[in-house]
UniProtKB/TrEMBL annotation:
Cellular-component GO terms for this entry: cytoplasm
Protein name: Bifunctional chorismate mutase/prephenate dehydratase
Sequence ranges assigned to domain Chorismate mutase in this UniProt record: 1-91
Gene Ontology process terms (BP): chorismate metabolic process; L-phenylalanine biosynthetic process
Protein's organism: Sulfurihydrogenibium yellowstonense SS-5
General function of this protein: Catalyzes the Claisen rearrangement of chorismate to prephenate and the decarboxylation/dehydration of prephenate to phenylpyruvate.
């Protein structure tokens, strides 16, 4: 068999596999639709993060390659997203504009088959859910270099919404253009922080290029779309949204630049066995109060992954502690420890119990 015949035979086999995949995906969608009808009839939520996490965990264990697990998860995220959309059209608001990192986080968590709606402030994300204009929201909460997004934490004091999930995104800045030839690039657009992050790479690789600051990386991508001799430094989703080629990946200088985003909604998801719980509390202004509040977590072997204080805004020098622990409120030990904390402090509130981020 010469190579052309071999290619033809392989492609025929691929076609046949695609036909089977197509049939199976539609079979899966039909089953999901049936599940959706049962859930609607019994007043159960359509989006079930714990079930989705269970699917990802099972596939991760099952995957033997050659496709790497993160790619397998990516494919299944979209399959699940598509099946979910047949059950119901889910609306998700995120901190926009389009093509921001929060947009990317929203796509990573829900897949492409939901309605992703950009709004201009973090407060609007909360408002839209309260007003029932959207089912879920996505907001940034902390970054490994910049620290906590205080504004997001403060919103939980104002609104009675729950954290239903989290997404961790590596913040990678890419060079992108509609022009596939990097040698023809004369100008680079980006936000000033992104330019600062990538200055070393630019000086080394494109020292003669003009740098133009604009208000956001998303805006930079939008401008680069209309200027053939330009490039933008922006996110992966900016390249996707504005149809740009990625000329060079990850040109920023920080190796460990990650942002954690929270998914907010109305109902606490059920436990998966690999969960986190977030709560807030305050303590009396007296010696050892914080120590006494936290000691039960140590005694019961509960891992605290974060504690952050914010002014309560009710009294001067009065603080609220935002705390993350491992475990779910339905775990006996977590439940009892939180009960103990609650009985020892003047203020306590659960913000959510949710599956840990899927890679
Ligand atoms: O199991 C369900 O409840 C489904 O609706 C099916 C499915 C899926 O496609 O696997 C879709 C949406 C849910 O969030 C979880 C899983």
């Amino acid at each position: 068999m010469d190579y052309q015949e071999k290619l033809k035979a392989l492609r025929q086999e691929i076609d046949s596999i695609d036909n089977q995949i197509l049939e199976l995906i539609n079979k899966r969608a039909t089953l999901a639709k049936e599940v959706g009808e049962i859930k609607k009839a019994n007043n159960l939520p359509i989006f079930v993060p714990s079930r989705e996490k269970e699917i990802f965990d099972r596939l991760e264990k099952l995957n033997k390659g050659p496709l790497p697990t993160d790619i397998v998860k990516h494919i299944f995220r979209e399959i699940i997203s598509a099946c979910r959309s047949i059950e119901e059209n889910i609306k998700v608001v995120y901190l926009g504009p389009k093509a921001t990192f929060t947009h990317q986080a929203s796509l990573k968590y829900f897949g492409h088959s939901v309605e992703h709606i950009p709004v201009s402030t973090i407060k609007d994300v909360f408002e839209e859910i309260v007003k029932k204009k959207a089912d879920f929201g996505v907001v940034p909460v902390e970054n490994t270099i910049e620290g906590v997004v205080n504004y997001t934490l403060d919103m939980f004091l104002e609104y009675d919404l729950k954290i239903i999930g989290e997404v961790i995104l590596e913040i990678s800045l890419h060079l992108m253009s509609i022009n596939p030839n990097i040698n023809e690039i004369q100008r680079i657009y980006s936000h000033k922080f992104a330019i600062a992050e990538c200055r070393d790479w630019i000086l080394k690789n494109m020292p003669h290029v003009q740098l133009i600051e604009v208000e956001s990386t998303a805006k930079a991508a939008e401008m680069a779309k209309d200027d053939y001799e330009s490039a933008a430094i922006a996110s992966e989703s900016a390249a996707e949204v504005y149809g740009l080629y990625i000329l060079e990946r990850k040109i920023d200088k920080h190796l460990y630049n990650y942002t954690r985003f929270l998914i907010i909604g109305n109902e606490i998801p059920s436990k998966t066995g690999n969960d986190k719980t977030t709560f807030i509390f305050s303590v009396k202004n007296e010696v050892g109060a914080l120590y006494k509040a936290l000691e039960p977590f140590y005694r019961n072997g509960i891992n605290m992954t974060k504690i952050e204080s914010r002014p309560s805004k009710k009294e001067a020098w009065d603080y609220i502690f935002f705390t993350d622990i491992e475990g779910h409120i339905d775990d006996e030990v977590v439940k009892n420890t939180l009960e103990e904390l609650k009985s020892n402090v003047p203020f306590f509130k659960i913000l959510g119990s949710y599956p840990k981020a899927v890679d």
